[in-house]
Amino acid sequence: MPEGDTVYKVAQVISKELEGRSLTCCMIRGVYGSERLAGSIVTDVKAVGKHMLVSFDRDLELRVHLGMKGSWHRYKPGSRWKKPRSTAAVVLSTEKTELVLFNALDIELIPTPQKKWHRQIQGLGPDLLSHQEPDWDDVIKRAYKLRKARDELGEILLDQRIAAGIGNVYKSELAFLGPMEEDAFKPAKRGYSPFLPLKEIPLDVLEGIYRRARVLLQANLGGWFRTTTIDRRKAPAPKEGIVFVYGRTAESCRRCEAKIQMGFQGLQNRVTYWCEGCQIK
Ligand SMILES: [Zn+2]
């Protein structure tokens, strides 16, 4: 699943290609008559959590969720695609560019006036990447309202209804790092187990973890490899490791040198990494 920062970056690229331009061709798989959007002008492209919204000047909006396998390709009009035409989910062309979306999880065309009643967007929590700082009290209230006391930290962080933008990499990294102190890239003295139930997570810890998420997501908007160990806006890539726990099964912990563990979590069986030695259980 792409993280919020990935969707944000993709939206920026697509926005540069499409915003203010007229479409010469349009195809949205499963949407009858989508080719009639040719001639319309793209008025806005933005990321909302893990969703990308493309607005057209005909009171219509395309919502895309990339899922695990979705990807946008950019071609010169008329050039050869790298995947078969039959697997394209969306094609948006201008005179200069052809943007093709393959293997998306979910796409739909929504009439703009209905958008505010639309469940999936309506249901999203505050966007951790929005310009305005989220109301942290609201985020915590959502966690308590939407989840049960026994639900685990890892599941809560991934719940886009509480706050939108955290994906599977950040989930493990954030639980390890713990609440933000002064430096978002410096782990707290101890982390928190991704399996810790909500009822055992102090409120200020949960808020601190979300605050850290916002800084980490923001720091990774620059087009480089995602890293949680260093602020790439201020420093070059680290020599030793770009993450603390994600994908580091059986390697030694950067905080306590115990071995990093890997397991599966929640109804969706999402892969999770943690350190047995230094994350509060
Ligand atoms: Zn450790």
Number of separate helices = 6
Strand content: 15-25%
- Given as residue ranges, the uncertain stretches (5+ residues, pLDDT < 50) are none
Q: What's the arrangement of strands in the largest beta sheet? A: 1-6-7-5
Give the terminus-to-terminus CA distance.
26 Å
User: Strand count, sense and closure of the main sheet?
Assistant: 4 strands, antiparallel
Radius of gyration: 20 Å
If you average the pLDDT, what whole number results? 91
Order of helices and strands: HEEEEEEEEHHHHEHEEE
Count of extended strands: 12
Helix content: 10-25%
Structure described in brief:
The protein has 281 residues and is of the alpha+beta class. It contains six helices and twelve strands.
Could you list some keywords that capture this structure?
alpha+beta, 281 residues, four-stranded antiparallel β-sheet, single chain, binds zinc ion
SSE layout and pairings?
Layout: H1 4-18, E1 25-28, E2 42-48, E3 51-56, E4 60-65, E5 71-75, E6 88-93, E7 98-102, E8 106-111, H2 119-122, H3 136-146, H4 153-158, H5 168-177, E9 191-192, H6 203-219, E10 260-265, E11 270-275, E12 279-280
Parallel strand pairs: 9-12
Antiparallel strand pairs: 1-6, 2-3, 3-4, 4-8, 5-7, 6-7, 10-11
Helix pairs in contact: 3-6, 5-6
The structure holds zinc ion.
The site of zinc ion has 7 residues, from loops.
